Structure formats: structure tokens, C-alpha cells
Amino acid sequence: MPALEQTAVIGVIGAGAMGAGIAQVAAQSGHPVRLYDNRDGAAQAGIDGVRRQLEKRVARGKMAQDEVEAIVGRMTPATTLAELADSRLVVEAIVENLEVKRGVFAELESLCDPDTLLASNTSSLSITSIAAGLERPERVAGLHFFNPAPVMKLVEVISGLATDAEVAETLHATAAAWGKVPVHASSTPGFIVNRVARPFYAEGLRLMQEGAATPATLDALLRQAGGFRMGPFELMDLIGHDVNYAVTRSVFDAYFGDTRFEPSLVQQALVEAGRLGRKSGQGFYDYRDRDGQHEGATPDFAPAVEAELPTLVAEGQLVAIAPLVVRAEAAGLEVVRRESISGEARLRLGGLTLALSDGRCAAERARDEGLEALVLFDLCLDYQSAGAIALAASPGVDAEAREQATALFQRLGLEVAWLTDTPGLVVLRTVAMLANEAADAVLQGVCSARDGDLAMQAGVNYPRGPLAWADALGLPFVHRTLTHLQQSYGEERYRTSFLLRRKALAEETFHD
Known about the structure:
Low-confidence stretches: none
Radius of gyration: 26 Å
Structural class: alpha/beta
Number of helices: 20
Number of strands: 15
């Protein structure tokens, strides 16, 4: 379906940060926009706020003043809902209250033409529920922008049970014409992003609660090894723990207490204490009197170690860790490749074995594979460019072997973080769980694999789509990692999505 014509009037209800931002996006794309808010003067204040933001761009040489005037000139404050009657599309961006939204849409239905598209920017409420009771629920869909709307690229186009496919396609095309990255999703709790992202926070919180590492160390590893823009603890502090915890509770409750979405007692305690993150001055980090910077953010990386290293032997199928071996060779280490040896990749330093984690703790894997001294290392987005890596040791690793492992990775230019012996370490565990949740979303018809990956990259800046990342690692390996995590904890939380399992057994991928 084609996008709405540039001449089509766009109505926006709610002149807060989201509503004004959506109005700005539409006006920047050439549409006449009518902005309504039931608070006296709020619509004009919203338009004035847009002007101020755009004029900051003028001051930085990013925009011309006449362009600002053109954009703002297309925005008109409305004093009543009736002034939106001739809109081709009305986007609601008001309080997250189902009954209030239902009332607004019922009034819009009585005012607007039958072919007017009605959309809600809700981030948590069911589009099906919002549209229920209307005479024409098929013209109602979700149009979920991310904050700040003028900056964030992703728009989730949400179809409720009654939403007409042509309505969803028109909104998808319109969002694309507005310079956004639209994805289709069905109206299920959390849609795509707020559902699939839950493990990013949950696994970090569990690792911290179990004493695997400090928040600062875990954050640094997910940034420097995993390639994520922010770690989970600094991101939760930025979002606000009240908001992040509420979303987790909402998804958990909506899925009838599914343990995959179980909230954290650690985060609940922060909310109860009023330590909401940056906005309150304290969260996992302390921001008081520090101009928005936090205290106590030093990762627990190992100090520099000088140790004589024996020849590094790389054996087995080296595909997953080949860049790490190349990095060792580039660092001038003596490396012997024995790729003719069957089995998974291993590195050997004398009597010490080093291997990529597979979801088992080092103690269990050393016992299973008959190894005396085993060090497991974590997944990295790119072993050639990573800046840090997590390690864990089996009980048979003595102080000398630990120093050798530390020295090896430091010689490669990597910061080394020793974790307590925990299944899946940090990056591998997080990526496997993100891929698992994305796979379940695809299985349940929430989105396509393409849109699931696109949403996580455009909506929360993940370095790679979770399913594309799982494809690159090999679905059998991801399946095995998840199986080991579930065996370690004995919890349904780590159960493998049937779709991921099926594709792993069939040696298929999510993307061709």
C-alpha cells in the first residue's frame, strides 16, 4: 500500500514529549499537523518546544532558520478534538490508561470520516482492547514510536485482532516515508522490543545477584566484548528503574507469570528505596553532584601480568574463534594450528586448556571432558576488535595457570575480567537468551525474523540482530548453550524456544 499523501492532515493527541515529537516528525515530512491536548495551552507549548529544539540545530549549523519556520508553520494547535475531524490519520499519545484511550477513540470515531486511520502510540496496552467496542475496529492500529521520536528510527506498526491488513501496510509505508524504520508486529505484550529486550536486563541482574561480577564489570564486558552501546545497569539507570521495573512487571503479568520475564528482587529493592537511577541521583551508580556522571564505575579488570607463555596450540574446528587465533599471531605469539584434530576449538597453553563457553560452568565441563585445568572464555562480537573478555576457571586451575591465561589475553590487547564460575559467562549467555526470546516471538507470530532483528537494532541499538547473531554462531551451538543453562539452573526460564530447537536439529537458519 502507498504512504499517505504529503497533503494529508495528521492529527496528534497529546502534546507531551512523545506527542510533540510525533507531530514534529510528520511536519518535517511535509504534512499539515494539528496538535491537541486537553490541558489549556499545552498544544501551543508543545509546538514552542519543537521550535526550541529545532533552533538548537540551527545554532549548531545543522539546519537553516527558514526550514525551522516551514516545519513549525505546518503545526497548528487544536483546542478541541473536533478540529481533528478532517485528519487522514490521528495518532494518540496520551496517558497509558486503557479506559481513557477507549474513550478518546470512541469520540474520534464519531467525529472523523470512516476512512480516517486511527493509531495509538501505546507501548504496553493491547491494540485489540483499545479498539474493542468501536464500530470499525479494523481501522485502529498501533504506531509505536520510541523516545525521542524525532531521533529514534524504529516504529512498531501493531496489528490488533481486528486491524485491516491494508491499514497496517499504509501505516508501515507512511512511517517509512517519514524516514523511520517500520516493522510489523502483532498486538501481544511488549510487542517486539519490550519483549525481546527483557533478557538483556534480566541476565545482568541475575549475574550481579549471584556475585558473578560487579555492575561496572558486567557493563564493561557487554560494551567492550559484546559491542552493545550501553551495559544493562547503566541503561537501567538511564531509563529509570521505576519505568524499567514496571515494564518487566507488565510483561510478566501479561504472560501469566511466565518465569522468562520474572522481575528481579534487586531492581524491586532499588524502586522501593527510591533509587531510580540518574533522575533520582542514585541507582546502581551514584550520580549526585557529578554532572550526570556516575561514581564507582571502575570495572574489576585484572592487573597487568608478566608471565612466560608456552607455545599456544589451537586445535579443532576454529571457525568461531579463528579471529582470536589471528589476533594471537598478529601479537607475535608462537602459535601452532592443529585444525585436523576433530571436535570443538580449544586452545592449549602447556597443561592448561582454554575454550569458548558452551553454557556449562567450568567445573562441570572440566569433569565431563576429563580436563584437570580448564579456563572458559566468553563470546565476543568480534574477537579481532574486542577490548575486554570474561574468563572463568575450573577448580584445577592454580595461580600459575591463572596468570598464564591472564597474560595470554592481555598480550592480545584485551582487558581481562575473572568471573566466579558461572554458566554461559556474560555475553554468550545474554546473546543466547535474546535470540531465544526473539525466536519465540517469531514462533508465536509476533513478527518475522527480519523484523525482529531490525527492531532490536533500530530500536535499542543492538550491534547485531539476535537471530542473525544466532545464525552466525550456529543454531546447534546456541541450542546447546541454552540446554546447558537450563540444566544448570533447572528452571523453565532457560527453556529453548521450540522454533530455535527445530531449526537447530534441521540445521536451518533464521535468515537465508
